[in-house]
Amino acid sequence: MSEDILPVTTEVLVWARERAGYSIDEAVAKAKIRAGRDGKSPEERLLSWESGESAPTATQLKDLARIYFLPVITFFLPSPPIEVSGLKDFRTIGNHRFTVSSPKFLALKLRIESLHDTLKEISEADPEPLVPFVGSLTMETPIEKAVETINSLIPWSVPVPANLRTPRDAFNELREKIQVLGVYVTLRGDLGSYHTQIQPSEFRGIAIADKIAPLIVINPYDSDAAHVFTLIHEFVHILLGNSAISNLDDQISQKYVKEELFCNSVTAEFLVPEKYLLQIIPEDIGSMDLQEFANEVAVIAKDFHVSRLVIARKLKDLKYINDSTYWTFYDSLAQAGKKSWERGSRKGGPSANVVAKYRLGEKLASRIIEAADSGIISYSSASYALNIKAGRFDKVMA
Fold first, then answer.
1. For a designed S-S bond to 191, which of 196, 239, 249, 287 qualifies (C-beta 3.0 to 4.6 A apart)?
2. CA–CA separation, 309 vs 330, rounded Å?
3. Which residues contact 31 (CB under 8 A, 6 or more apart)?
4. CATH assignment of 10-76?
5. What is the topology classification, in CATH, of domain 103-270?
């Protein structure tokens, strides 16, 4: 028995594919569209659906919804939906701004904004003190003054205390300090499965600057050292009072994102103060070959619990290395990072409940689960916000 042909809106079909950044060929391959009995090629079939010459079946429409990460009902809207976001997009690829996000990231961004809405809804019924420092900095604030402000809120010792032996220890310490101030910090970089993981090159962090429920989201699939930098970088966005999406590409262009450069400079000076760095830089670091330079940078980065790229950028800014050395090193790290992500994204680890609790953050998870227990929000809303089934709540919080 043949399936019913569905009266979809052709304009929405085209919008959904272009929103996902797919060409006709790419969409056909991902949706596994087959040639038709009428002799049309897979590409011709998709084009005929988008033009209104023919229409997809329910199964074919579900396949399109799957690859575009959209609800099936979207295709029946009278026109493409208008997507409004309060998040400034500061992401770059090389010296150019992102023009097309992956459908996975677009879906994740909507979920993060929904999570923030849930936190605000809870706060309306169960108010907590407003977070006063949101928006306390401006772009005119001197870097040194901005660093002093951060240190007054989350005191940080450099060199890093001996009890914080790894970048993850440093991240956990800073995360806790920031959460005590009333900012939610959570790690999220997928839609609930391995197949929907989002690479750090697409996004590393998101900040939602709001005095009621400020929120920082960090991509868990980045390195621990990168997490430290991203956390402070997004915290600076909170202090500026601006919500933003970042991928912290160091080839950032001055004309595109001055705010991103400001956040980078403040973060780098907070984590790697110039006066301490100058004390440990070898005098001949600028004349080392690439391997010697890489080894020396790795040692310095370990002392500060930051990524090697942060150290290399500081050395470039301080004129210890030239542009050629820096960009050669940058390219080598970019290639190594891509290979590391491909290997690391497939590794096993602790139980799903342990991972969920760590990534969600106890502050955020307990706030939402307690709201569900008290009837402020439904368990289904809590489940959607946390991206875990309600039946797992007790196990996750154990």
1. 196
2. 7
3. 46, 60, 63, 64, 66, 67
4. 1.10.260
5. Arc Repressor Mutant, subunit A (1.10.10)
